[in-house]
Automatic annotation (TrEMBL):
Residues that coordinate or bind substrate: 298-304
PROSITE patterns hit by this protein: ADENYLOSUCCIN_SYN_1, ADENYLOSUCCIN_SYN_2
Name used for this protein in its record: Adenylosuccinate synthetase
GO BP annotations, alphabetical order: 'de novo' AMP biosynthetic process; IMP metabolic process
Species assigned in the record: Actinorugispora endophytica
Keyword Hydrolase: no
Compartments reported by the entry: Cytoplasm
Main localisation: cytoplasm
Annotated GTP binding sites: 12-18, 40-42, 304, 330-332, 412-414
Subunit structure: Homodimer.
Length: 427
């Protein structure tokens, strides 16, 4: 039975929480496979708004098993803060499963994330400061601490000793900061161990067995394609693989089991942090999009950078992820525009490019070439089918579909659970 992957098709914040919530009742497992509490998913249910950072959005659907798989990095303090917050609001979180192989964000990772950004000055990446990059760096250098290490005090102490020998040299001698002491960290993490134990499982085994039994598994990507460590706007990226290939490595599910890849695509473009963004608007229209679309980060509260839809980016996302369906979000935000600009290519130092340029230098020089589509005035937040949309909105959707290279199977017209037009089933 199917494993379905959901990926952000732009720079994240496309509205993935809403998409996952839409299919929540129709899938059995919702899995996070990369990233950590740098993510921010907002889900609105009735008059309740939930902002999730680390937990899979499936945690809000009572019939779903939410899974934090091996590719995620976990800050246990944040995990329990989020779980306790949901418990207080009456959400049952006992079904959660956490991979024994997931890596842990340690206090020195957070410290190094912040201090290295400060030292980069104008060259900073604009990270969320949650310790994501340094944790993945340790994972790749084989110096990381995993969930399972918390259940063996001897191992945990040994790993911490080795890590602190190194990190404290860097913190004190390179960055002129105070070093961290081992005992308080050990005590804190051993405290988390007992709380974590009931959730820990061999999640790859659980998920593969579930697929064998005909269950549906939904792999929920965080961030977005252009923030991918390999396929994004490096170095202005996150340190994991949000693209669909990352879903396999990050969950222990083979690629042959994935039947659909759903790309979440905002009807315009946003980005937080530094890095190239050809359609970014520095004028009143950027502010207009930010206000209309409430484009303020869920995780950091930072203003999101805003710009028009960029078709080469959507096509690129289709290509590197093998997207089979798009979920177009926030179409309602564009209501009221006389004409809607869409970037269909770039001018790079006098040369026309229809696709994202191969090099970072060229991408930094890319000036959007726009096509303009007729806008619509009507409020579309009450639309419940494609035919309810004004003709110009329908034409805009069809044009994006054509330009993006995959069918648009769902359209978001507002933040609520019922404000989604599903043209084809996403499951
Ligand atoms: P990090 O993931 O905290 O290391 O940050 C690296 C880059 O990814 C920065 O530009 C962040 O703003 C961006 N980023 C990380 N998580 C998200 C997200 O969930 N949405 C949008 N941007 C993100």
């Amino acid at each position: 039975m199917p494993a379905i992957t959901l990926v952000g098709a732009q720079w994240g914040d496309e509205g993935k929480g809403k998409a996952t919530d839409l299919v929540g009742g129709r899938v059995d497992y919702v899995v996070r496979y990369q990233g950590g509490n740098n993510a921010g998913h907002t889900v609105v249910i009735g008059d309740q708004k939930y902002a999730l950072h680390l937990l899979p959005s499936g945690i809000l659907s009572p019939d779903v098993v939410p899974v934090i798989a091996n590719g995620v990095v976990i800050d246990p303090g944040v995990l329990f803060e989020e779980l306790n917050g949901l418990n207080k609001r009456g959400v049952d979180t006992s079904r959660l499963l956490i991979s024994a192989n997931a890596h842990l964000i340690m206090p020195y990772h957070r410290a190094l994330d912040k201090v290295s950004e400060r030292f980069l000055g104008k060259g900073r990446i604009g990270t969320t400061g949650r310790g994501i990059g340094p944790t993945y760096a340790d994972k790749i250098s084989r110096a990381g601490v995993r969930v399972q290490d918390m259940f063996d005090t001897g191992i945990l102490r040994k790993k911490l000793e080795l890590a602190l020998n190194d990190k404290n040299q860097v913190l004190t001698k390179v960055y002129n900061r105070r070093g961290l002491e081992l005992e308080p960290i050990l005590e804190e993490y051993l405290g988390y161990a007992e709380l974590l134990r009931p959730f820990v499982a061999d999640t790859s085994l659980v998920l593969n067995r579930a697929l064998d039994e005909g269950k549906t598994v939904y792999l929920e990507g965080s961030q977005g394609t252009l923030l991918d460590i390999d396929h994004g706007t490096y170095p202005f990226v996150t340190s994991s693989s949000p693209t669909s290939g990352g879903a396999c490595a990050g969950s222990g599910i083979g690629p042959t089991r994935i039947t659909k890849v759903v790309g979440i695509l905002k009807a315009y473009t946003t980005r937080v942090g530094s890095g190239p963004f050809p359609t970014e608007l520095h004028d009143e229209w950027g502010e207009w999009l930010r206000t209309q679309g409430h484009e303020y980060g869920v995780t950091t509260g930072r203003n999101r950078r805003c710009g028009w839809f960029d078709a080469p980016i959507a096509r690129y996302a289709t290509r590197v992820n093998g997207i089979t369906d798009f979920f177009l979000t926030k179409l309602d935000v564009l209501s009221g525009l006389e004409r809607v600009p869409v970037c269909v290519g770039y001018d790079v130092d006098g040369t026309r490019h229809d696709e994202i340029p191969m090099t970072q230098t060229d991408f930094h020089h890319a000036v959007p070439v726009y096509e303009h589509f007729d806008g619509w005035d009507d409020d579309i937040t009450g639309a419940r089918s494609f035919e309810d949309l004004p003709k110009n909105a329908q034409a805009y959707v069809r044009a994006l579909e054509e330009l993006s290279g995959a069918p648009i199977s769902a359209i978001g017209v507002g933040p609520g659970r019922d404000q989604t037009l599903e043209l084809r089933s996403l499951v």
